[in-house]
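Standup notes
- DV: blocked on the single-chain target, sequence here:
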Amino acid sequence: MNIFQMFAPQADRMFHFKEVGPFNTGDKPKPRSGHRIVHYKGRIYSFGGYNPAIEHEDPELQDDEFWQESKPLFKELWELNLTTAQWTKCLMKGDIPEQLASHTAVSHPLDPGVMLIYGGTGAPFGLTTSNTVIACHLDTQEFKKIVTQEGDGHPMALYGQAVVTDSKGLFFTVGGTSGFHYFMDVNMLDLSCSPPVWTSLYRLSGARDEPEPRYRHELCLWDSKLYVLGGGTSFSADRFEDLATFDIKERRWFYTRTKADQQATIDNSDDGYPEARRCHSTAQIADQVWVFGGYDGDDVFGDAWKLDLSTLQWSRLKMELPLPVYFHAMTVSAEGKMVVFGGVDDIELNTRTSRVFSAWLAVPSLRSMAWEAVCHYQPGISSVPPTILLEEGVPKDCVDMLSSNTTSQAVWG
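- DV (later): unblocked, structure below
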């Protein structure tokens, strides 16, 4: 077998979904929606979620110290090792948020080992919302509230807002709902300052070109502009032809006209644009943004779209989610591996899933392809003692990817 034959099964998965698993019965999270995930060192970390169908006396949750008070929300942090397909339930400590649904979670732009959790709601939805940023240190699973500088730039306590960060340590948040009203304010947290400081960049005033208030939209950042993708209210969904755009330097809203996919056919798009939707997910790599899934109030979507921010051109992709979902969670690694977990998969039955899918959105490095090929052809490699693997020349960081990253855990079983 030559190197090209060895890597072919992995290279062919570019823009193709692969299900992560199978998992052993009992050692995985319950189906959920409204949670969030981030990627760190070959693993995803999932916080929070919601499932009203789980019985209060579910036997698998009787040892969970938080379930009786948090139900039907999950006060949980889970780690999924993408190499071994092993879920591990983390033993959390510190300032664990009570807002467990429709919060946001992103990697700290200056410290990728920290997950920043912001906003969200407890149950009943809208009665307990948050404008606090919580840092979860993924190596220790310790949560700590970020104390910010006093001032008038703090955002309102909302849920369903969208956030995005830049490489300089700036954290932007747009929109959200109190559960009763919708907003489209723009706030920025400078994480490079000590202590971090909030700045109010814009509050809706009724001026021309201001966008409709919304929640469960997504954000992308390019050339000092925030582009808002979709979103809506409990009764509406926003479209994608003209994107609400916020110029960070000029602090003003305007609309950006995008270009339709002329190759899209009537069976996969009405007009060459994504259908209006909310509760979808996006992934951004440089000037390329992907949109997956979502919901418009009637239909659940499984389609995939790409927007080139340099040309503003939409493209309908051939890849589709294996399971159409909304209120799901998605993340992408620095190298371009996208992972999607959970979500609502049936409107009429109101059911949720715990399935996990991954796909490469960019060509991975030769090193990553080689490691995936090794794991593919040696499925039992995780059972080999680390000392043996190191002696055989397996790089230490690859060996480390075969074990749990948690320092303490409680695994269902």
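- Follow-up: The two ends are 39 Å apart (CA to CA).
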